[in-house]
Amino acid sequence: MKRIGVVLGRREATPLEFWVGVEGDGLLRLDDLVVVEGFHPQVGQVRFFGMVDHVAKVHEGESFDTDTFLAVEGKLPVSLAYVAHVSVTRILPEEFFPPDPGSPVYLAQEEDLELALYYDAMRNQRGSTKLPAGLLKNGEVAYLNLEFLNGVKGGHVNISGISGVAAKTSYATFLLKSLLESGVLEDAHQARVLLFNVKGEDLFFLDKPNARLTEEARKAYARLGLPATPFQSVAFLAPPKKAGYLPDVDTRLEGVEAYHWDLVQFCQRGLLPFLFADRAAMTNLGFLVAHVTEKLKRLAEGQKGPHLQVEDWPGGEASEGMSFDQLGKARLKSFSDLVRYLEYKLLGPETGEGEGDRGWTARQAKGTLEAFVRRLRSSVENVAHLVRGDRPGSPPDPLSGKAQVHVVDLAKLSPQAQMFVVGSLLKDLFERKERGQYRGRVFIVLDELNKYAPREEESPIKDVLLDIAERGRSLGVILIGAQQTASEVERRVVGNAAIRVVGRLDAAEAERPEYRYLPTSFRQRALILPQGAVILHQPEIPVPLLVHFPFPAWATKREEVLEDNSAEALRREFFG
User: InterPro entries, alphabetically (predicted)?
Assistant: First the structure.
């Protein structure tokens, strides 16, 4: 062991914290881990493990600020004091008495490091549960206890930080890489990932090598026990263009499939509420949405898409492409047709004569019915290309197919359409897991949580996310959520995350109560964190860890795609 200093006697030492005087040319930095051996005749030898959370240097012998100039010139005798504050992380055995002043302090390395960070406790009957989560300042691997992530003892991850600086998505994908390919998650081959792409097309190249990957980054991956390779099994899905069926993408033109729901799926799965992103302020309108949703479910029962058959109604023939079967039932072939049909059922003929169908109106006031119809009409422009009756539906299905990671693009959709896609997918996935239709774990990566689960507002999507946060880990559904400001996200969503990660924070945000679990020094450091560094907090370790994670081995944009080093490219270069 390398001695670094001694426990100071001028400052109070307790079982939970003490000060260290660094001796000679010794170096002690923030986040360094140390170990001290104490002894008491009644209990024997005790070892104190701790982390440095404050370091300072001061001239002893100065009385005034200007004395420093005299000391530098050699005119005033002073001593340089190099001191560090240590927060105790563990005591073995658990005998809570303070270390003696003058006790030697050593840097914690190898086995001592593992004891200081409880790595020895990260085991179960099947073996190690140490999941690589990055690298510490000293180059050692930082681990998460997998059992606090896979649902055994806890679940969910929450990541906070300034957009574009905190690298929230980069760390989320790094965690996925560790989960799927470190070998720690024993049933990793059965795990599925639903990854929402919310900005640009950054995640559309997860399966391509990164041309900017350095040799240093490759060594970091090797140190972590991870392959420096892109993701091997990925499906990419994007919404169709509003005119046509092709996926609406710009940078990746191959290997992307368009997704949409047909009218029968929309009705059978009860997706209507997700068009009302904000739960209706009026209780009556919320009740009407639920009532119409159930009516549509019964209407679509037993039908097979894509179009929806309904009973005849006057004006149906006016819709382009509308047709009727031999029994006089109309075939709705677009979302616009469905909206017009509901308008007729709720408000009656367009002439204004008569009333709506009482079986559909649920005896609601005309103002409530009109508010409902207005909202539906306004949604046609946003979601008509996502809900259609002209071809069978092909919504994203992360629980089926061969691909392990499903990237679902939202970037070009309107806010209402984004809400609809996220809510519909999460509802379907969670219900299927509840019914036991898929046994493997499912990891959901969703950025901008403050939009989908806001603290103050209520919505059907927020209800689904709360269900996942509170009951998901027992079903093997794990949410890796991210946002710029945790203070704007529903408390129960953030509070149920066993693992919390913080990147660069805004100064005002860092002072919010949501970050009080971080010591003051860590909240201050969050203001200056560089990209590639995050603060990691997990239940088993009493102090946060500052960890660095390597540059992505997978391309994050088109210009990073490594293509010219392929065998085919080399063959073309030399042989034409």
Answer: P-loop_NTPase, T4SS_component
